[in-house]
Each structure stands twice: as structure tokens, then as C-alpha cells.
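Researcher: I'm preparing a figure for a lab meeting and need a structural model of a single chain. I don't have an experimental structure, so a prediction will have to do for now. The sequence is pasted below. Please return the structure as C-alpha cells so I can convert it later.
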Amino acid sequence: MLRAGPLSDARVMRLVNRRFVPFFFDLSNRGFAGDPKARAFVVKAVPVLGGRSVPTPQVLFMTPDGKVVAEESNYAGAEQFIKRLKQVMRDNADYMKPTEAETALMVLEDRAQLAIDLLDYARARKELVKADSPRASYLRGHLDRLDGKFDAMKKQFARVTAAELRDDVRMESAYALWSAGNYEALKNALAKFPTKSNRYSEARYYEGLALFHLGQKKEAQQTWAATIKGCPQDAWIYRADWAYCQSKSTGGTMRFSSSGSRTSLLNRIGYMGRKNPDLTRK
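Model: Understood. Here is the structure written out cell by cell.
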């Protein structure tokens, strides 16, 4: 649930990878991600997790020596999770210390990217004030997209001519269509996205969403299924599996098992709790 939910949000992933060391494991050592050492480490800090039957565990924020400094619901949304991450960093100043590599950054665009990863958009914009390159224009447009300023985004992207940024601009621009609920245009904008692009699985996920909201549920499921089966696992694959499962559910339930016809495409037990917000948006 967690990897398909908040940890599939680009903002969350960037901040977590900059300031935390994320790991997951099955509470059962026999599970897909069974890890006896990880289980022993966590159970020592939270003994209740060592029982035979336990409720869905919280997300634990821990120090290297095993102290739990904060917790968050496994079903948290992205905004709630970001709020918790920021609180943990405020309460634990060591988490905010830049690494030597970060301190050594000299290129303005690299410094701006670091600030974006740390969700400090005001600082990112300041770093870009004197930068004049296709990448700088792209980053300004990306910041405008994150702020929902789509007209300003388009103006910045009009300056980006570098071939290596073409797919990024195309995917970022699609978010304006998604935000406006213009699903027909969104579907067309993402059709035949380059398979070798690092934004491919993201584009296919949103192409499936466009189809779903156009009432073409079967086509949406086929799009997600083909993407899940044809791409390496990443955040968008997890989210596509979540969307596929929910779109297959009937009667308001999400009943999936770990085998047989009711398994998820990633062979997961399913996605309980919060519904995929991309399918339930108004």
C-alpha cells in the first residue's frame, strides 16, 4: 500500500531519498520480502509487531540504533506523509545536514534540483535567477507545474529545445491537462510515448487514467496491465497495480488474494484501506 500510495509521489520519493534510508520487509520471515534481521531490529523497538496476528503496522521513523522517533499511518496520503516527513526533520536537526557532495555543488541547476528535492521551492527559484540554459528553463517550468501555474509553465517550456529534455517537457505539460480534467486531450498527448524514456511508465499510468475517466475502463485496465508486465518495477508500476486492482473491484470492495484469479498483477494480496485518489477524483 505504502509504495503505491505516498511513496509513489515524486515529492515524497525525492525527500525520502535525500534525507532518509527507506526499507521495507514482511513481518513474516517467509514472506516475499522476509528479512529476519530487519524483523528482529523492528520488533525489538515495537514488540507488538512480533505477535502472531498484528494490525497493519505504522510507518516507523527510526534512528540507526533502533529508536522510534515518529510514526505515520500506512494508509496516509501524500500530503499527510509530507507533513510528517517535515516534522521529523524539524524535530531531528541532524536529518537536515547537507552531505559533503551537496555542499560541493557548484552548478546552479544542480543546486536548484537539490532544493526541489528538499521541497524548498523558494530557494530553488533563487538558485535559478542567474541560470540561463535549457535545463534552467525546464526546472522553472517544473516548479510552475508543482505550483499549479500552468500558463507560466508553458512559457518556460517554450524555451526548452534540448532533445534530452523533450520527454520531460511532454510529461510535465500533460499535468496541465490532467489538472483541468481534459481527459481526451490527455490521452492524445501521451499516446505512443517513447518506450525507452525514463518517464514511460508515468506516461502510461496517466494514459490509463485518461481512458478510465473517459469511461473506457477495459482499455484502461489493458493499458495498466501491459505496462506492469512490460516494465521494470518502479513507483508508477506500483500505482498502476493499485489502479488496476481498484478498477477490477466490485461492490465497493477490494478483495484480492495472493494467488489465483484474484491476485494483483504484481502478485500482491491487494490494496486495503484508502482508495486510489486518481480514480476517485471529482
